[in-house]
Design goal:
The protein is an alpha/beta fold and about 250 residues long. Helix content is about 35%, strand content about 25%. The strands form 2 sheets. The chain has a 6-stranded mixed sheet with strand order 6-7-8-3-9-10, with helices on both faces. The longest helix has 16 residues. The chain is globular and about 50 Å long. It binds adenosine-5'-diphosphate (ADP) and magnesium ion (MG). The site of magnesium ion (MG) has 3 residues, from helix 1. The site of adenosine-5'-diphosphate (ADP) has 11 residues, from strand 2 and helix 1.
Length: about 250
């Protein structure tokens, strides 16, 4: 078995007196697709944001290929470029067209040439089904589902080693959810390493290698989709699923 990409050890995060993450440990192997489920306020977003250092953990370690990214002299900027992030709210650059959205980080952050960046952007836009007819459109001309697919292509264009998704379909109209989930399913099959916070239980069951149930700042239970959805061990997992799968 290959070495994990990420090993999160005893991660804690407090906001003032409020301890939101209480000793979380998780290893992520190359190619693994992990879904994180749990009630609102259980700390899922804070966990993802702590993984890519949008939040600074209060305690614990995040090992990336064995090196602790929280060490003072670790190059955290390079680390963050290795993790693509997709948010609920798309966060596209509204003044840039679709193609430019997928180019800009490549030329500014990765210092790729314009022509190289353009080729890679187009490949990834095609990969998420945002084909040539959309490339000159501005985000405001797109549906929510299209915007989210552009956001995914943009994140992929910097060749991340893992992609983090924070409820990527929660802001979408119901009819747009399927196209985004389908895109993510194709990515999962392609061997991309993915950590996905989601309320789409069917998706989590069908696409994940592993499901994490978070409750009040801890990993209350984790296991295969079959184990979590069919034979949950913990009462609080059963309660949560009962509410969601009714
Ligand atoms: N920047 C912040 N400052 C203070 N409290 C925060 C901040 N971000 C999140 N929290 C608190 O952390 C808790 C967990 O939030 P969050 O990680 O967003 O949960 P989830 O994504 O599971 O809904 C909530 O009580 C929330 O109010
Ligand atoms: Mg959240």
């Amino acid at each position: 078995m290959s070495n994990p990409i990420l090993e999160i050890k005893h991660l804690k995060k407090s906001f003032g007196q409020n301890q939101v993450l209480k000793d979380i440990s998780l290893s992520v192997n190359p190619g693994e697709v992990i879904s994180i489920i749990g009630s609102s306020g259980s700390g899922k977003s804070t966990f993802l944001r702590s993984i890519n250092l949008l939040e600074t953990p209060t305690e614990g370690q995040i090992l990336f290929h064995g090196e602790n990214v929280l060490e003072k002299n670790y190059d955290a900027t390079t680390y963050r470029e290795k993790l693509g992030m997709v948010f609920q709210s798309f966060n596209l650059f509204d003044n840039l067209n679709v193609l430019e959205n997928a180019i800009v980080a490549q030329t500014t952050v990765l210092k790729r040439t314009r022509s190289e960046a353009e080729i890679i952007a187009k490949e990834n836009l095609n990969r998420v089904g945002m084909t040539e007819q959309y490339w000159s459109a501005k985000p405001k001309q797109l549906s929510g589902g299209q915007k989210q697919r552009v956001a995914i292509a943009r994140a992929l264009s910097v060749n991340p080693e893992a992609m983090l998704f924070d409820e990527p379909t929660s802001a979408l109209d119901p009819e747009m959810v399927g196209e985004v989930l389908k895109t993510m399913q194709v990515l999962a099959k392609s061997g991309l390493t993915m950590i996905i916070v989601t309320h789409e239980m069917e998706f989590a069951r069908d696409v994940s290698d592993r499901v994490i149930f978070m409750d009040k700042g801890v990993i209350a239970e984790e296991g295969s989709p079959k184990q979590i959805f069919e034979e949950p061990k913990e009462e609080r997992t059963r309660e949560f699923l009962k509410r969601f799968l009714k």
